[in-house]
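does this look right to u?? magnesium ion version
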Amino acid sequence: MTVTETEVVLEAEGLTKHFPVRRGVRDLLSREHKVVHAVDDIKLTLRRGRVTALVGESGSGKSTVARLMAQLYGRTAGEIRLHGESITVRGGRKFRAYARRVQMIFQDPFASLNPTHTVRYHLTRALKIHGRAGDLEQNLRNLLDQVQLTPPERYLDKFPHELSGGQRQRVSIARALGADPEALLADEPVSMLDVSIRLGVLNLLRDLKERLNLAILYITHDIASARYFADETLVMYAGRLVEGGDSETVTQNPAHPYTQLLIDSAPDPDRLGELSRPEDQAGGEPPSLIAPPTGCRFHPRCVHAMPKCSTDLPPRFELPVQGHWAACWLYEEGAAK
Ligand SMILES: Nc1ncnc2c1ncn2[C@@H]1O[C@H](COP(=O)(O)OP(=O)(O)O)[C@@H](O)[C@H]1O
Ligand SMILES: [Mg+2]
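got this back:
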């Protein structure tokens, strides 16, 4: 099956977020309004029954993309479409209606669960907020079954600190499923978990994707896990997408020099997650996002940089494999490779 075949759930186009920089006394005297260019001109499409990975090093803007897609942040520019319909919500009832269909899973399950409340409380609340309480006991059991916390009665009255990290993340996933969503935005859902249980949680998400026909955005700094888990992979650098395509092609045949650097510095995919920690960064330093490099943002670190790379922003160039593209001047027709 190609990437284009299933129904589109959620799309972003031109998605941009600039955060104002807190101004010091000196800045107050100048007329400049500095901003952090966290996310610029992102285009992405989430489809039913598909995992789309968003890969990039720490600080590249991945979480900001997830929060924009979840409508937790207002955007500076761009459009978000749910089933083709442009939608902007800021809090209130409209937000709740949106969140029923688009749920987020956070990196740190301990921080996202309230330590003073039990599993039962968290899941009941999610079901009630989204009007799905119905036969509450049965629905609670179903949610825990779905995330393979069985038998459910062993977990329902536990507090977050009584669970392992993996079990807590499963509760967070169950809570998200309480809304019966169409899309899950999973922001580094396994990067805080012990290596030995990461695969189990990814396999659970994959199983849920298939059984519930979910569209999943999988955010990670670990390109090896994208290859394992995602159908499509998008690579982000310093707030911009630089490459995309089916995961197999992007990881086996990376076109953008940044993707190549990520792959070269990634651990062996057969030992998924063993060496991968957020602090494992590709060589060189990511740029300042207050004054990002002109042209291609990667050019100061790029071994192939040409003069125009520092002046002109590269558009997406289509590559031979269908759906594979790179925003890199190396792929301009007639460019010397
Ligand atoms: N609320 C905020 N206010 C100001 N700057 C922010 C805020 N959130 C993120 N940033 C900045 O935006 C950039 C991208 O951050 P983030 O989206 O968290 O990246 P990632 O998830 O890839 O590590 C970083 O430079 C970060 O410091
Ligand atoms: Mg993040």
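Residues 273-281 have pLDDT under 50 and may be disordered. idk if thats expected tbh
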